[in-house]
Amino acid sequence: MMRNDARARNHPAWWAFLAHRLSGLALAVFLPVHFFVLGEALEGEAALDGLLAWTQQPAVKAAEWGLVVLLAAHLGGGLRVLALEFLPWRDWQKSLLAAAAALTIAAGLALALAL
Fold first, then answer.
1. Where residue 18 falls among pLDDT bands split at 50, 70, 90?
2. 18 in Cβ contact with 73 (< 8 Å)
């Protein structure tokens, strides 16, 4: 039985599933904190200026990049799940996995170049 579990974890669909779940968990943790910080910063002009200055730090920019990659990965994974639910399974769906991964990487690179 252990052998089948190991084979399943080497399948590209398992890795797509894992990326979708982990990106969803990371977003679920990050977004409430993000909105709380924005809400606190919008209460005063000085607080907002301080927040905007803080966002220019390299670590914050790297975190923003990570957020965009997480969003792209979660979007790609969600589209994959929709395709699995509503389309008949075919071998070409492995190409959809590759396309979703490529779009995730492209979104991350686009933001990294813009920073």
1. confident
2. no
Pull the structure tokens for residue 42: 């919008």
| Structure tokens belonging to residue 19 | 């990326």
Q: How many Å from the N-terminal Cα to the C-terminal Cα in the chain?
A: 48
Residues ≥6 apart with Cβ < 8 Å to 32? none
DSSP 91: T
Per residue in 74-106, pLDDT tens? 888 888 778 777 777 677 767 777 787 788 888
Please name which of 78, 81, 76 lies closest in space to residue 100, comparing C-alpha atoms.
76
Taking residue 54's Cβ as centre, other Cβ atoms within 10 Å add up to 12
Q: For Cα atoms 79, 24, 115, give the angle at the middle one, nearest 5 degrees.
A: 90
pLDDT value, residue 3: 56
Residue 73 burial (CB count, 10 A): 25
Q: What is the pTM of this model?
A: 0.60
